[in-house]
Write a structure and sequence with these properties.
The chain is mainly alpha-helical and about 220 residues long. The chain has 10 helices and no strands. The chain has one domain. The longest helix has 29 residues.
Length: about 220
């Protein structure tokens, strides 16, 4: 696809916004559950600089799947550790899905004929759903791994943590294989649910507007 400077001018702020909302939601949920660590360390912020993980941002920028710098959490503050870790872990992906839903509503009812506006809405819905679903994969260090770890029985959870130390390398390997060897691993897992949700939120207008991202 040819380089489109306008498209990237729109896409970069949307990426930063998606990352920021994701991490802010983690920190806010942790605070609500009694843990002030993120707030005390300045991570309960809408400043994207506070949340950017360089490698995760590069993957998100290039491949539309990525991650941010994990919000610091001290689980000793949680009253019910397993339950509260699950709630805190789900908060980030669910915040992205909520933003995508709002963007979808705008695509449904307010298709203003301005290309920059429409591109912004399309990137808002697609990148937020992509970020949310990607982070739900049960592979460390993604949020889904913390959910799975705290659902498993203690013995199985410990084995999962032991294997999890290799998670970041496996994750990077999958992303690289998917994009350079065209194995389609991530695509097979996420693209279908991603476009299903996007269509559910935005309706048929989604497909009418998608060509804006392909020229």
């Amino acid at each position: 696809m040819p380089f489109d400077i306008i498209q990237w001018i729109v896409k970069i702020p949307v990426l930063l916004f998606a990352i920021t909302i994701h991490e802010y939601a983690h920190g806010k949920a942790a605070l609500w559950l009694g843990d002030p660590t993120a707030k005390n360390m300045g991570r309960l912020s809408f400043n994207p600089v506070c949340h950017i993980d360089i490698l995760g941002a590069i993957c998100l920028f290039l491949f539309n799947f990525g991650w941010a710098k994990p919000v610091p959490v001290d689980i000793r503050y949680f009253k019910n550790t397993r339950r509260d870790v699950i709630i805190m872990s789900l908060a980030g992906p669910l915040a992205n899905i909520a933003i995508a839903f709002l963007a979808g509503v705008l695509i449904r009812i307010f298709v203003f004929p301005l290309e920059v506006y429409l591109q912004a809405l399309l990137w808002l819905i697609l990148l937020n759903i992509g970020l949310g679903l990607f982070n739900l994969l049960p592979l460390p260090p993604l949020d889904g791994s913390h959910v799975l770890e705290n659902i498993l029985p203690p013995a199985a959870a410990q084995k999962y943590r032991d294997v999890g130390r290799y998670g970041p390398f496996i994750l990077i390997g999958i992303v690289m294989l998917d994009n350079f060897a065209h194995t389609g691993i991530i695509s097979r897992i996420l693209i279908g649910p991603m476009f299903y949700l996007a269509h559910l939120f935005a309706g048929d207008n989604l497909f009418r507007l998608l060509p804006l991202l392909r020229h």
